[in-house]
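input
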Amino acid sequence: MQKFSIILILSLVSLALFGQVKPSWTNASMREINFPSNVFFTGYTQGTAHRGESIAEATQRLSRDAQGLLVESIRVRVESATTSQTISTQINQNERLTSEFISEVRTTTTAEVVGMNTETFHDRETGLIHAFAFVNRFELIGFYRANLSMNLTQIEGLLNTVQNLETNGEKARARQQLETAIPLIEQVRYAQSLLIAIDQNSSPENLQLQRTEQLQNSFIQQQARLAQAVYVFVESSENLFGANVNIVSSRVKAELSQMGCSFTDDILRADWRLTITVTTRIHGETHGFLVSYADVQINLFDVRRNRSVFQDEFSQRGIAPTQEQSARRALSDVVPIIVERISPWF
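output
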């Protein structure tokens, strides 16, 4: 009985070591049978561990290579399709050719492939490591059709929000919302190009081309309207040793105008109210030069939302041969500080 047990154990060990079941996908003919190209995208590679590389590390490397080959095969199909294929569609009763955003769609090997599976096998007899990546074409089609509809719906919602904000005069917030639609539009273009490449049943209807064009036109129109400046109402009090000046406010306006802001004297038309209060003081003398300080208070008020969004206080030093020159130097130097601190709100 003991002898039989030993034989059984040795047999099991031998089976574990030498009786590996080799997956059928390691054979090219079997891969084509079990994973036909009309149903699957695949990537296959084999190799051995490099010097100093463990089996696990080599397996990971070859898995990435197989995945890269799969994605590359899709990328080639997408570029081929978007270069050569156009789809005829009816828009406003006129037949036109839509090029599927050829010039704008560029895919890379880092593109997302949903549902990709990867299997590996280490053949101990030969030392070869096999890696196989595959994804079902129809699962991909289903995902990207759903993804296309979801992103178009999100874009519609964002454009409606932008319209409401614009109507209420909240241009800054409308601009922010409109910018969030840009990556969604890019995803729509990518999904449409991918579907053209992998779906033989692609049509203007299931690619939602007319809906896409209408949304893109709305986006462009809103973008053009919002490119008009945000209006800022500026009120300032600047005291240069008892004299009223507008050194800071005029230069801040000049800087903000470079960012697309316009200015209004009507607070009812303004998107923002910027209040600047500056006073100067003499500080002393250093190495024959006079030192003055400009003490600054700023308040940025969101007129449409009726609340202050940013407040700050700081002091800036100026050094020059005379008292007035040093104070003016300090006033000039506060301008870039103010612009830097409030510009994120615009």
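quick obs: The mean pLDDT is 84.
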